[in-house]
Design a protein that fits this description.
A: 395 residues; alpha+beta; OB fold (Dihydrolipoamide Acetyltransferase, E2P); Chloramphenicol Acetyltransferase; elongated; B: 87 residues; Non-ribosomal Peptide Synthetase Peptidyl Carrier Protein, Chain A; 0% strand; globular
């Protein structure tokens, strides 16, 4: 038997509220399978199991708030006998007893509950293990009604079923206030611990805009690209090629990340900010990055990001150009070591040869961790992003 | 939904467009049809693209990228979309 604890789904998470189970007692769990949905101050997040096994007990109830590390569910792993005496579950998942043990088993004996034939058939159809269902029939037998109730209570949405999300047990205001506190704590820590240095470079974005206009001209709205996707790819490629900007500073040293997961600062309506990651952004074509970005922004605002998206960014991009601001020098999101800021596009005087001409330009900025890199490396990194932007066809 | 035989009544179209905007910006209350949309509704490029996609879906009017940039106010959008909903 092994207990799966509530994992930390982000550097600043210390507790979570169980929203719903995605598995029930008796289900086989694969490694990486989503077993529960947990609400944090940032989002409803999927909790994945890192173990393979069969669920023998659910140790929390939806609506319950647990500290990180507290056991969430118990698995029988290879070598265990699922029918072996099992530890009583401290908290049955529901009144219907989907996660509880019936009387006979609680005594410790490997006695299977009696199950009415109709109930057994229905249980098989619904994928319910009758061993985990409390029987209300004669002699504690499991009836058809018991099975239906257990299925309704446990109902892990099966593949293809419409996604059900429990209403988060907090109001929008409370969530907003909690998110503000989370941001305050994360930013205070980052400012305290990371010795930032800041660089800025004005770059011509005419080539990128022309390339976009050319591609978008023939496209329906749904397939159009935004400059944000172009920036994303340019930053991802430069981060891949330049040591010291893609990774994390942990336990006194920089650890380069093998993948380039670009966090994208997403402003939430009603206040606050999240920076979920577009995973492996350096390997994906711009069209795909655009589609993923659209989806990511919608889910950040809808509160349905995955654990990886919130926890595995290796560098962050913040684009404040929309607010028509010229420059943004952000705070690096610890334990990351670099943040690229992008300002608004404006036509500014630009010197070409001996002439000054109006050109669409934007400020690229870099905030970076001086423990890991110096201004010279930062300047080269920024120049690499600018070079990528000047040749968008090769992105 | 897309093409009717008559151009849509502009008033109804305007109300419909405000409803589409509310899906993007639920906090939106009254909207001055002459106000710059992006500032008044706090739309970023992604929001605006989603607004165009919603228009295409509901009214069957695909607004080309080259024209989208000149649609600055709700009034501009109404004036652009209304005649194109005629079948």
């Amino acid at each position: 038997m092994i207990d799966v604890p509530l994992p930390s789904l982000g550097a600043d998470m210390d507790e979570g509220t169980l929203l719903e189970w995605r598995v029930g007692v008796g289900d086989t769990v694969r490694r990486g399978q989503v077993v529960a949905v947990v609400d944090t101050t940032k989002s409803a997040l999927d909790v994945e199991s890192w173990q393979e096994g069969t669920v023998v007990a659910l140790l929390a109830k939806p609506g319950e708030t647990l500290p990180v590390g507290q056991p969430l569910l118990r698995l029988a792993i290879a070598g265990d006998s699922v029918d072996a005496p099992r530890a009583p579950a401290p908290a049955p998942a529901s009144a219907a007893g989907a996660a509880g043990t019936n009387g006979a088993e609680a005594e410790g004996g490997p006695i299977r509950a009696r199950v009415a034939p109709g109930a057994r058939r229905r249980a098989t159809e619904l994928g319910i293990d009758t061993a985990g269902v409390a029987g209300t029939g004669p002699g504690g037998a499991v009836t058809l009604d018991d099975v239906e109730r257990a299925a309704a209570a446990a109902s892990p949405p099966r593949a293809g079923a419409p996604e059900l999300r429990a209403t988060p047990p907090v109001t929008a205001e409370a969530r907003g206030a909690a998110l503000r506190r989370t941001i305050a704590a994360a930013m205070s820590r980052a400012k305290r611990e990371i010795p930032h240095y800041y660089l800025g470079e004005l770059v011509a974005v005419g080539p990128a805009l022309d390339w976009l206009a050319e591609r978008n001209a023939a496209r329906p709205v749904a397939a159009r690209l935004l400059l944000a996707a172009v920036y994303l790819k340019a930053v991802a490629l430069a981060a891949r090629d330049h040591e010291g900007f893609n990774g994390a500073f942990v336990e006194g040293e920089f650890r380069r990340a093998p993948a380039v997961n670009v966090g994208v600062a997403v402003t939430l309506r009603g206040g606050g900010l999240l920076a979920p990651a577009v995973l492996e952004a350096d390997t994906k074509p711009v069209d795909q990055l655009m589609a993923e970005l659209k989806d990511l922004v919608a889910r950040a605002r809808g509160g349905t990001l995955s654990r990886r998206e919130l926890a595995e960014a290796t560098i962050t991009v913040t684009n404040l150009g929309e607010a028509s601001v010229a420059q943004v020098y952000g705070i690096v999101y610890a334990p990351q070591v670099a943040l690229v800021g992008i300002g608004g596009v404006a036509r500014r005087p630009w010197v070409v040869g001996d002439r000054v001409q109006p050109e669409p330009t934007a400020w690229l900025t870099l905030s970076a961790d001086h423990r890991v890199t110096d201004g010279h490396a930062g300047a080269r990194f920024l120049a690499a992003i600018a070079a990528r932007l000047s040749d968008p066809a090769r992105l | 939904m897309s093409a009717s035989s008559q151009p849509l009544d502009e008033r109804a179209l305007q109300d419909g467009l405000v409803e589409l905007l509310r899906r993007i910006a639920p906090e939106l209350e009254a909207l001055d049809p002459g106000a710059p949309l992006r500032e008044a509704v706090d739309l970023d490029s992604m929001d605006f693209l989603n607004f165009l996609a919603a228009i295409a879906q509901r009214y069957g009017v695909e607004i080309p990228d080259a024209d989208a940039g000149s649609l600055l106010t709700l009034r501009d959008v109404v004036a652009y979309v209304a005649p194109r909903t005629a079948g």
